[in-house]
């Protein structure tokens, strides 16, 4: 069997490893307890949401208009 066919078979086998259903805790495990002040624990979908600090929005434009760049002493032409 050629390496290309073997590689395609391995990729196809790995692609079939995903679980198509809803997320559930592992057998014998429970979801984390409810946060302080909450009446019930969060759902798996809520647990997967990123908090705002994990992916913040940029609120400051670093350059508002074209500016001349300063001379860079390390911007050298390629050797050779």
Walk me through this protein's architecture.
The chain is mainly alpha-helical and 80 residues long. The protein is built from two helices and no strands. The model has no long low-confidence stretch (mean pLDDT 79).
The portion of residues assigned to helices is 10-25%
Q: Profile the largest sheet.
A: none
Q: Give the integer mean of the pLDDT values.
A: 79
List low-pLDDT spans. none
What best-fitting shape do the alpha-carbon axes yield?
Answer: flat
Q: Structural class of the secondary structure composition?
A: mainly alpha
Counted by DSSP, the helix tally is 2
Order of helices and strands: HH
Number of strands: 0
Rg (CA only): 26 Å
How much of the sequence is in beta strands? Answer: under 5%
Distance between the termini: 45 Å
Write the layout of secondary structure elements.
Blueprint: H1 3-15, H2 44-48
Question: Concise description?
Answer:
The chain is built from 2 helices and no strands. With 80 residues, it is mainly α. The chain is flat.
Task: Give a quick set of tags describing it.
single chain; mainly alpha; 80 residues
């Amino acid at each position: 069997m050629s390496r290309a066919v073997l590689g395609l078979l391995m990729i196809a086998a790995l692609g079939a490893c995903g679980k198509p259903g809803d997320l559930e805790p592992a057998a014998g495990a429970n979801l984390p307890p409810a946060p302080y002040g909450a009446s019930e624990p969060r759902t798996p979908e809520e647990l997967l949401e990123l908090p705002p600090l994990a992916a913040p929005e940029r609120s400051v434009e670093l350059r508002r208009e074209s500016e001349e760049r300063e001379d860079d002493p390390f911007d050298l032409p390629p050797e050779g």
